[in-house]
Amino acid sequence: MRGSDGLQSVLTAVRPDSLNLQPVSRTHILHREPLCGDAEGWGPVSNIRWDFTPCFLDVWIIGVAVWGVLFGAGALWYLFWKRTAQEVPKNWHFYTKLSLIAAIIATTILQAALQIEQLPSLWFRDIRFYTSVAIIASLFVIFAVQYHEHWRSRNPNGVALFYWVFFVLAYAVKLRSLVARKAYEDRLPYFITFNVSLALAILEFILEYFIPKKQSVYDALGADDECPIEYADIFSILTFAWMTPLMKFGYSNYLTQDDLWNLRHRDSTKVTGQLLQESWDLELEKKKPSLWIALARSFGGPYLRGAMIKTLSDTLAFVQPQLLRLLITFVDSYKTGHERQPAIRGVVIGLAMFATSIAQTAPFTNTFNAPLKQV
User: Fold this and answer.
1) Contact at 8 Å (CB) between 214 and 89?
2) Listed residue (172, 237, 236) closest to 210, CA to CA
3) Which pLDDT score is estimated for 259?
């Protein structure tokens, strides 16, 4: 049973007292914590090995499922209410993507069934079973998103792309833990189906992101002066990769006004003026109309999102120094006369610093870029 060590994280963990580094058998359970059928408990760090506990790892997978359900529902609302369906022929790319999602749903259902078989008296009290259920629900939502985006979007949906990135990362971390626990020896069927799910998810992401989807006849024609951000995916927007052709051309040529793209449609004066007019018409129905409220209703969305992202960015600014302190402590432990900390701790600190930097920089640059387009 865990005492005060239960509050430790993988960044501040001390050396486990137990010398038994072998995986704990499911039949040898000394203590079970609520909704966790594994002897290592919730952790987050195991008492018997340098790793996260299985139940704690599934919390992150449930987070992926929650992303898929909540943001996927938002993506469906956006596709139906903000996008117009067009005639787009179905091709092998369309059917293959949906078939892969159906296959992942099947393997996840099989994982849930194997958990019931292998833990007959514990599965209904174990988060790992409900993780499979949550993933299945999220896959159905993402299936609907990728089905309808075929007719209603020119580019891969950002929610679906991030879902597959999070899915692959969470499953890869859990796979490493399964290998460390030698699940391929005592839970081989589950281990195989889990690997199949991960492989199919990687293939799904490749098809969704790297292979262009079929376009309608009208969109396929395009326009010479159309702004690439109109059909840029979420990663291209976050990294400003859609500007690469212009940057390459400007490197070797003197840019003139004729070389520049048009504004994207929703940033044009016609669209923004219409939005303001509609908001102002609503205000005129009140006894005391307010121009400020009309402006906020028309253009307040980007500023509100910017304020939320700026708050997150400022919060992460306090995280980096703490991670740097932990990294210095880790490096210092390798001096002569010091007890060396496990290498996995240094890897986790480095990855945490990288993830924090990306989460701080990519959205932050777009935060100030978006409101300026409304000016």
Assistant:
1) yes
2) 236
3) 86
Q: Check residue 372 and give its pLDDT.
A: 47
Match 């079970």 to its residue by tokens. Answer: 32
Per-residue model confidence as pLDDT tens digits over 201-212: 999 999 999 998
d(CA 151, CA 214): 9
Phi and psi torsions of 273, nearest 5°: -65, -40
Alpha-carbon dihedral 262, 265, 271, 275, rounded to 10 degrees:
-130
CA nearest 316: which of 352, 369, 368, 346? 352
pLDDT of 8? 39
Q: Name the residue type at position 216.
A: S
Read off the pLDDT band of 309 (50, 70, 90): confident
Question: How would you write the chain as a 3-class SS string?
Answer: CCCHHHHCCCCCCCCCCCCCCCCCCCCCCCCCECCECCCCCCCCECCCCCCECHHHHHHHHHHHHHHHHHHHHHHHHHHHHHCCCCCCCCCHHHHHHHHHHHHHHHHHHHHHHHHHHHCCCCHHHCHHHHHHHHHHHHHHHHHHHHHHHHHHCCCCCHHHHHHHHHHHHHHHHHHHHHHHCCHHHHCHHHHHHHHHHHHHHHHHHHHHHHCCCCCCHHHHHCCCCCCHHHCCCHHHHHHCHHHHHHHHHHHHCCCCHHHCCCCCHHHCHHHHHHHHHHHHHHHHCCCCCCHHHHHHHHHHHHHHHHHHHHHHHHHHHCHHHHHHHHHHHHHHCCCCCCCCCCHHHHHHHHHHHHHHHHHHHHHHHHHHHHHHCCC
Number of neighbours of residue 302 by Cβ within 10 angstroms: 16
Spell out the residues 6+ positions from residue 201 whose beta carbon is closer than 8 angstroms to its own: 104, 164, 167, 168, 171
90, 150 contact by CB (below 8 A):
yes
Reported pTM: 0.81
Quick one: tokens of 195? Answer: 């690997």
